[in-house]
Amino acid sequence: MRPDTPAENVDHAAEAARLERTAGLYPEDAETLLLRAAAHLELSGDRPAATKLYDRLLSSGPAPLENPSLVRALKASNLWEYGHEAEARAIIDGVRTASPRDPAPWVIAAEALEAHDELEAAHETFTEGARLLLTDVPEPPYSTHPLLYGRHRVRRMLGLAHDEWDTLADTLHTMPVSLDELHDPKRVWSLGSDNPADLEAEISRLRAELGAYREALSRPFPVAMLHWPTDELTELLDAYPSLSAEYPSYEEHLATTEAALRELASSGTPNLGVVRGTVPSFEAFAASEGTSPADPALLPQYATTLAARGRAVAWPPQRGAACWCGSDRPYAGCHGTDTPTDR
């Protein structure tokens, strides 16, 4: 349903416009055509325009939508990708409350949560969908397989033991590589996706990394410092008090992070960045490593892994951009005073 052709091979904006025109000619197929158009707009990078299409569908009448929960889940996933987290969460909560009988909204909502390291909430969403659609079902319909596979993947990330539905997912999976191997947290953290195009890109990155290593050059992903937002740091230290030696206070954490980045820059280290830590993803990473989250040696590994997954924000920020610390002030007027290097 959702196109995944690489952007360099398709003019996604033009394709979206064509589908919108077609929807005007065939109103009985407008829902399907406009969802495809919105997907093309997302791929083109015009997420606000995609949101307008989702809103257009949701406000259309008098004919009811065939799958309003699917449209809402897609809208939430898109909104979260360009910074509208609170609205996206509210929509996802609404989708879960509506208890749709179609697996697709459950999968999209859960994967949106998973993509933003909300692993516990993703697990709950996958499980709610599975419980609703698969309880007392002798043979899971094909359309529900992604629900079971996604739940299996998140449970592996959380370090949870297999249950009956995980066993069922293993049975349904027919690829040569088992789900346990495919969803091995170390592979998931390294590869970041099970999309074939993403895997091909990762192979290219690994080849480039090997060549860079042989030539003693820098890695293709940033050398990143780990930043804990204030609420995440509070939660982290409440759960693992031994880490307070690493983070005596939030203010000192910010100052230390900026100082470390400046020191790396002054030593000639290129391609610097900042990654945002969250307690759920850190705990999942610790589980994948078979280590306690209280181990401070895990912190730089976690930062490196997030950077390798493309989660790093380049440092220093561009001129006029907000500071990496999340203060909403321009970097130059926050931690960027007298920054010794330019990107």
Describe the structure.
- Strands 1-2-3 form a three-stranded mixed sheet, sandwiched between helices.
- It has 16 helices and three strands.
- It is mostly helical and 343 residues long.
- The N terminus and C terminus are likely disordered.
- It comes from Streptomyces plicatus.
- This is Preprotein translocase subunit SecA.
- InterPro entries: TPR-like_helical_dom_sf.
SSE inventory with pairings:
Elements: H1 12-25, H2 30-44, H3 47-59, H4 68-81, H5 85-98, H6 103-115, H7 119-134, H8 145-158, H9 164-172, H10 179-182, H11 185-191, H12 196-214, E1 223-227, H13 230-239, H14 250-266, E2 272-276, H15 279-289, H16 298-308, E3 313-315
Parallel strand pairs: 1-2
Antiparallel strand pairs: 2-3
Structural key phrases:
343 residues, mainly alpha, 3-stranded mixed β-sheet, 16 helices, 4% strand, disordered N terminus
Evaluate the radius of gyration: 22 Å
Tell me, briefly, the overall form.
Answer: globular
Strand content: under 5%
Strand order of the largest sheet: 1-2-3
Please, how many helices? 16
Backbone structural class: mainly alpha
Largest sheet: number of strands, sense, barrel closure: 3 strands, mixed
Low confidence ranges: 1-7, 208-219, 339-343
Number of strands: 3
Instruction: For the record, give the distance between the C-alpha atoms at the N and C termini, rounded to a whole number.
Output: 40 Å
On the 0 to 100 scale, the average pLDDT is: 83
In quaternary terms, these chains amount to single chain
H/E series: HHHHHHHHHHHHEHHEHHE
